[in-house]
Amino acid sequence: MKHPLIIGIAGGTGSGKTTVVNKIINSLPAGEVAVMPQDSYYKDSSHIPPEERSKINFDEPNAIEWSLLVEHLKQLKEGKTIQMPTYSYLTCTRQAETVEVKPADVVIVEGILVLTDPSIRNMLDIKVFVDADPDDRLIRVIARDCIERGRTPEIVINRYQDVLKPMHCQYIEPSKRYADLIVPQGGSNTVAINLLTDYIESRLHKGASVRGLSPAVL
């Protein structure tokens, strides 16, 4: 049985990870890519009083149910379909609905903390870190959280100073050292993204291995 190519895409909040993922998906035939957002695997917080949920630190590894993510990755590698959980940022709880994810030639695990967990890293064929200027990331975070998550600019900026920035320095930035490929300038680096997608296509055709590849900046 042919195992899928498993790619981990990490980087700071607002770095452009989703843009990179979408460009990879668009470069390959329909149905060849399955995406597993790290955010879907946040631990359920329904047992915590609603007024306390806003204080949850989503930017530390302990917020993720890594064991479930690992199990789902194993099932996809075995050619099995999974029921991926869904998570609501509005209520900070795991939802009853799940998303069916079928086996695919390429499986992308995307999220800020993807490269921090050893069990996940060991399952990745290609480890990518999307890098971006902190000011650019902050601007994107403000725009996204105000529009998609109903937060005020003041709340977003305070959270950035109190949580996002220190967690980025403590967990996310250090995980860059595990990357095989580093994409500077975030999702706007079309040259790097094109090189990455070309490399993925060549791996699919040749089945070559990148384990042991020295980190490179594209």
Task: Give structural notes.
The protein has 218 residues and is of the alpha/beta class. The protein contains seven helices and eight strands; from the N terminus they run βαβααβββαβααβαβ. Strands 2-5-1-6-7-8 form a six-stranded parallel sheet, covered by helices on one side. Helix 1 crosses helix 7 and helix 5 (134-148) packs across helix 6 (153-172). The two termini are 32 Å apart.
Distance between the termini: 32 Å
Gross morphology is globular
Strands of the widest sheet, in order across it, are 2-5-1-6-7-8
Q: State the total count of DSSP E strands.
A: 8
| Regions with little confidence, pLDDT below 50 for 5+ residues | 208-214
Helical content band: 25-40%
Overall structural class, as computed from helix and strand content, comes to alpha/beta
Largest sheet: 6 strands, parallel
Average predicted confidence as pLDDT:
89
Strand content: 15-25%
Task: Kindly provide the radius of gyration, computed on alpha-carbon positions and rounded to a whole number of angstroms.
Answer: 17 Å
Taken in chain order, the helices and strands follow as EHEHHEEEHEHHEHE
- Count, helices: 7
Features of the shown structure:
218 residues, alpha/beta, 6-stranded parallel beta sheet, two-stranded antiparallel sheet, 8 strands
List the topology elements.
Blueprint: E1 5-11, H1 17-27, E2 33-37, H2 50-53, H3 66-77, E3 82-88, E4 93-101, E5 106-110, H4 118-121, E6 126-130, H5 134-148, H6 153-172, E7 181-183, H7 190-206, E8 216-217
Parallel strand pairs: 1-5, 1-6, 2-5, 6-7, 7-8
Antiparallel strand pairs: 3-4
